[in-house]
Design goal:
six-stranded antiparallel sheet, 9 strands, 251 residues, alpha+beta, Jelly Rolls, 8 helices, single chain
């Protein structure tokens, strides 16, 4: 998928107060390229500390796939600083407003730290899905070198933000079934150029419309670590009575 818009946005990290023109550039880039990148979003010292934290978490789990949910487990790290950053929250709110023409809600993120390693890490790869949240911020912490580096496969912006939760649920049901998954994995293997393929660089921040885009991470070597932090912003169906009745907590 070719584009004339560069996904790299040269702005300052974390504490920088993003201007409306900068946010507009980010939104336009996501629309045209499928994603945008803010390079060097965290510094080398913070990245080194996060990598040590990831290795300790994996070791405590018996060298298996680890998922840390929420703010509390990472509050003392650079990930906690991002969560608390008013500048990052404003970036999310304004991006939401520019996409939807609705006020951006001042909500907590749904955030996770995913640490893929071992055979369980391989099993949690190439699972194509839509996020339940409009905007996804992805911060790579550790990415394997070589052929199987766990790059991100994206079919960007293939649907609109649904007005009704039932429409969103139908989209997910059509995607989350063995036939659809087989077709997408086959296409990724035989025709990878049909996807936007994002080679992740630790310390950069990647932004894309997770709700609107079909995406999955490629596998990495079982003896390597692929660690990414994800900040999901704004579930458009959080007030759905049907969703609450179904008890849907899939993100």
């Amino acid at each position: 998928m070719s584009t004339t818009v560069s996904p790299r946005i040269e702005v300052l990290p974390v504490a920088h107060e993003f201007t409306d023109p900068e946010i507009r550039t980010l939104v336009d880039t996501i629309e045209h390229s499928g994603y945008a990148v803010i390079p060097r979003f965290i510094g080398a010292d913070d990245l080194s500390e996060l990598r040590e934290f990831v290795r300790e978490s994996i070791s405590q789990a018996g060298n298996k796939y680890v998922v840390l949910n929420g703010y509390a487990p990472v509050a003392h790290t650079a990930l906690g600083a991002i969560t608390r950053s008013p500048a990052v929250k404003r970036l999310c709110m304004r991006a939401f407003e520019q996409l939807t023409s609705r006020p951006g809600p001042d909500l907590e993120y749904y955030q996770i730290l995913r640490c893929l390693t071992g055979e369980t890490g391989v099993q949690n790869s190439m699972n194509f899905h839509f996020d339940s949240y409009v905007l996804t911020l992805l911060l790579p912490i550790e990415v394997p070198a070589g052929k199987d580096s766990g790059e991100l496969f994206v079919l960007p912006n293939v649907r609109a933000v649904r007005r009704w939760y039932t429409s969103n649920l139908l989209d997910k049901m059509l995607l989350d079934n063995p036939l659809s998954q087989w077709l997408l994995r086959t296409m990724a293997r035989r025709h990878p150029r049909r996807f936007v393929r994002i080679v992740l660089e630790p310390g950069n921040l990647y932004l894309f419309w997770g709700y609107r885009s079909i995406h999955a991470n490629a596998p990495c070597d079982a003896d390597k670590i692929r660690a990414t932090a994800l900040f999901h912003y704004a579930d458009p169906h959080s007030d759905s009575a049907l969703k609450k009745r179904l008890g849907r907590n899939v993100h």
